[in-house]
Design goal:
Blueprint: E1 2-4, E2 9-11, E3 16-17, E4 22-24, E5 31-33, E6 38-39, E7 44-46, E8 49-50, E9 55-56, E10 61-62, E11 67-68, E12 73-74, E13 79-80, E14 85-86, E15 90-94, E16 97-102, H1 105-117
Parallel strand pairs: 1-4, 2-5, 3-6, 4-7, 5-8, 6-9, 7-10, 8-11, 9-12, 10-13, 11-14, 12-15
Antiparallel strand pairs: 15-16
InterPro entries: Transf_Hexapept/Carb_Anhydrase, Trimer_LpxA-like_sf
């Protein structure tokens, strides 16, 4: 995991961040990874707030001031420009990104199971 300006990166309990993910933040735009969130290989987060139980798949790019809600899923290679918002329990994809659907019951259950599985 690559950090720049470590003082402005906060990874909460239970989050799983791949070592190849790049996470950076600044005093004005800290990077926050929520409880039991998953950040996969190759993701790049620059001053974004990732909600609890969210999934950030490989190749995702999230710019400064981005907000990703709890249980949201960012599909592979999704690009979120500065200030973008993804609501809780939504699935986003594309470049430029769009909200493509809500979470399925199976996706929601799998995310909730992370806490009991110790991921």
């Amino acid at each position: 995991m690559t950090y720049t300006e470590k003082d402005h990166v906060r990874i909460k309990a239970g989050a799983a961040v791949d070592p190849s993910a790049k996470i950076s933040g600044t005093a004005d735009s800290p990077a926050i990874i929520g409880e039991y969130a998953v950040v996969e290989a190759g993701a790049e987060i620059k001053g974004a707030s990732i909600g609890a139980y969210a999934t950030v798949k490989g190749g995702v790019s999230a710019g400064e001031g981005v907000y990703v809600g709890d249980f949201a899923i960012l599909e592979e290679n999704t690009r979120l420009p500065d200030g973008a918002k993804v609501p809780s329990r939504a699935v986003a994809e594309g470049d430029p990104f769009s909200i493509v659907r809500g979470l399925t019951k199976e996706e929601l259950d799998a995310a909730k199971a992370r806490a009991s599985e110790g991921l």
